[in-house]
Here is the input.
Amino acid sequence: MRVLYIHPKFPYRGKDLFPIGLGYLAGISKDRADIMVIDENVESFSIAKITDFRPDIIGITATTPSFQRALEITGKLKKSSNATVVMGGVHATFNPEEALLGGADIVVRGEGEKTFSELIDLKDLEKIDGISYRENGRFVHNPDRALIKDLDDIPFPAHDYFRIENYKIMSIISARGCPYSCAYCSATRFWKNQVRYRSTKNVLEELKRIAEMGFNLVRFMDSTFTLDKKRVLEICDMIKDEDLDIKWSCETRADHLDDEILRAMSTSGCNLICMGIDSASQEILERCDRKVDVAVMEAAFEKARKYKIPVRAYITFGLPGETERSVKQTIKFLYKVRPRQILMSLATAYPGTDLSGGRYIKMHPNWVAKFHGHGPGGNLYLPEGMTRKEYIRLADYMLKEIKKCTHYSLYPKLER
Here is the structure.
């Protein structure tokens, strides 16, 4: 069995991050198949190279921003290879029929390690949970697959199949899932309303491997890294006890940061906290089910500054309830808390989110490309009562003010 994994190119920030989902798939399949990986963000897509490899199965991951490129790749592969094309990822999970109509032979929905293992082992399709496919012209959606109970059972990502020298930072996931239900995010649905943790010992072993590979920049890709306080304190202590020569960053929420956590993060090498702010309008936060107060977010910035940890703020324009007043509230907040970096996105009705099915607005891709925190490809959400002219004016105004607010250049290259 010969298996090719492809990570399609997508044009927004973070493209130098290691595609950890494919890393896990390579890890579970390396003992049962010959593996090749192409990450288009760090290397060129080559039909000749693929033809020489002669894959039996081709796995393509697809988020919404990379979905169109995934379809382009699928079309090229269908003309040059007889391999079975399997598509997975968030977009394909929530829109499996779109992926199948676009050329995929099979869609893996949700968590993919066990499902892909059974595909490699050539198990009959009707017996594989968590997949969609077409049979005699009709769509077949097999039952969802149960989530893996113990994440420690999953082998580490197989880094050796990637052009590892082309990555500036190494990704790691210490937990899967999110307990929150923010209107613009599909993570809770994707992970079936559960949060599962790897053991801290298992996380440490992977961190040691990453350090041995020569990486000194690490990014925890958990939805909310500091969700479990006791656990994050253990990880910080382990990093210090092992004297790992790494600097690390994470994503988290303001209401899961306190002095004890920040002190531990600071002394264990944390050099950036990525914090979801979205808006400084309490009304918008409540309409999006964010379950956080503006005052708590402001206090989190003060605490992070106390421990000298830079903060990147994620801001989203155009969420339900957005008005000129709410935009000005957010800008005023940013000038007050002064994040080290600010990434502004446009509210997008991604598949699997509460925003899907709402009012949409079409904008020229060149205009959208100005918002570097934004991943293109989805439908832009248009707040009720807002005209197209007002949408453009307010988004441009917010971006202009954000550039003025930031301490340094808007998108520094060194801190990620």
